[in-house]
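Objective 1.3, modelling of assemblies. Example input:
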Amino acid sequence: MESAFDTRHHYDDELDDIRAALVELGSMVAANIRRAGVVVTEGRLNEVDAVIGADRPINARYHDLEEKVFTILALQQPVASDLRFLVAATRILYEMERSGDLAVNIVKQVRRLDGVPTDLRLDGLVLRLSDASARMFDHAVEAVATMNAAIGIGAEQEDEETDTVTGDLFTAVTERQDAIGLEACVALFYIGRFFERIADHGVNIAQHITFAVTGEFPDGDG
Amino acid sequence: MADRIGTTVDSVDHTRPETLEDASPSLAATRSPRVTGGTPSDEHAVILELSDVNAYYGDFHAVDSVSLPIREKEVTAFIGPSGCGKSTVIRSINRMNDLIPTARIEGAITYHGVDLYAPGVDPVEVRRRIGMVFQKPNPFPKSIYDNVAFGPKISKYSGDMDELVERSLTRAALWDEVKDKLSDSAYALSGGQQQRLCIARAIATSPDVLLMDEPASALDPIATLRIEELMYELKQEYTIVIVTHNMQQAARVSDRTAFFSVDVKEGQRTGRLVEFADTATIFTNPQHDETEDYITGRFG
Amino acid sequence: MITQPASIDLTGDPKRRSRERTIRSIFLVAGLMSVAISALIIVSLAGEAWRFVSQVDVGSLWTLGWFPRRGFYDIPTLLIATLVIAGTGMLVAVPLGLGAASYLSEYATPRNRRWMKPALEILAGIPSVVLGFWALTFISPQVVQRFFSSAKPFTMLAAGLGVGVLVTPLVATVSEDAMRAVPRSLREASYGLGANKASTVRTVVFPAAISGIAASLILAVSRAIGETMIVFMAAGAVGGALRTFNPLEPGQTMTAAIASLATGTDQVAGEGLAFQSLFFVGLLLFVLTLALNVLSNRIVRRFREKYE
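Predicted structure (tokens):
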């Protein structure tokens, strides 16, 4: 944000800091999403608490950042791209925080079932799903880091994989209803649903960046 | 089918962390984002303390009982409607009100613990330590160099004057623009440059407090933002008190804000301090309805 | 969208316009008149002065003194006396006048200023005859002769001091106006930088007011050179004077010479070129004051510290 008059260095620094903090928060959430995936597919019950514990600093960071954005909005009277960015930042913060919560919810399902009874097919689908949603989320964080509007524009399409895999997972779970029991079915439905939601949040984050950069939301119901 | 799934698994395996600890970001090492505008820390010492300050012009009670601390290396803003006494208060801090024959201050203003209004305190000495920048840029009708050198010359500065002039102009973010025309008249500069020259001139006497009485009200928006940016830089070294009728400016530049209001009693307009808090609080969650009404533009 | 009325009359009132034209011509005539009168003075001065220059014996322009009746037209006598008296006057008026101006403008409480300024202005209005008489009856015996017991009753010093008293209020009031016109903001800037009153006056107010102050001084010099009555009464040397630089001697200035020749104190009509010499001296005086004015303009432009 080099301006010819170099008038608002300090304010520019503040905005840069907000962006850097968003990337950092996003990376923390992404890491927890991957860990949640591992907990599910490998049944690492002993690591459930670690995932839940890791969400605490995420929440703290989220509240801290939200207040900072709020303060900048109040004190610096941002306009135009700065205003779009800060408004997008509040939404992105929310999406990130929700994603973090979803990762926690996923591992809680695992604990409730005392490990998910599964077979190779289900394992594979859950693995694919967790990986796809984590990748979607990574992409979103990348969009924030680089202020890349293109990622948000292609996000909806990119997310189709998650939707497909989720569908496949639901079908597979339904087919094994008798074998794994109702409770496990419900848990797997939840897990699938949560991963899919995480991917959706990723899509939204990327689209908020598109809005911040271009002033317009990408087409589609982001 | 198992094969297919297997390959799929393999294809994504590279992202899988070996242990949770490996993937866990080291929270201690992550830097806390440097974002100002939150609550300023109280670690800055109180450099000026106004206690129960009343100002009078003749029989006219202009300011009623103002008490507030000013911390060093912070920007403290005075805001409020016209006639609220904010200018009177800032001018009482370096005894500029002494120049008005009928003006009288009651109460105490201590600077590093010394009462500025105690008998034996020389206002000239006070003003060398507590400099002032005025509403309208008021450079002397002299060269740029002589303007900056004015204060040091008066106080018999014995060091390298050229070096001092350069240093002061550099701190005021003006050096690059004027270094080739130091002997030109100060009036050849633009309004914003003149105001920065006035800041350089004030800095040259090495004060530790800078009082700014609506320093940007006569400037265009870009020049205003430059002055604000400069204030942000200057507060690393100086304590700044600014009076502004521009609330947004107070929000942008200050760490703490004092909101003054005015009471009309029997035709007399007496200013008083309504609320003094850190700027973020004043602008996000003021404790007084009057403050809220003023900063939201619903005043009166 | 602004709708235009069908026809709109912007020609205004013809009577008003013709009245404006009339007023303009009246002022034009007044302006031309003053130029014409000045020109007339120069022409009439120059004519007689030329007669003097063309007919006078050049040797008589450089003699021991100014004795027109005897044909000694020593112009330096008059110039020296003029300068000695004006110089003495300025020695009095500059410190007193500028001091008074500084006091009134910077130091005086509003209450003191309220009576002192009008008092000064009244002093400026005292007729020079009164001052001349005062110079003769007070300054000469009480001041000049007290310090210089050998001094005569009529001296250039006494006249010079009288002229000084005459122009002091002029210097004071004009300078004070100039100093007060210096914006308050400049003083505040100076005080804000820790300057005291004296250095503010010296380094800020004076330089900023220099054009007005210089103008007041030049005006005072012109006035001192052109002053007649005090010199006529107190400097002595009526009718003629020896060339001298000594202020304790009587002396005759250009103005006094003209006055004594023209008032008949000294019966000159028909005495050679004495009458014409008067025009020559007058022209000289005119040129001198003109030169001073030009000089003052130059100085003012050169040293002006503009504050806007």
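The two ends of chain C are 42 Å apart (CA to CA).
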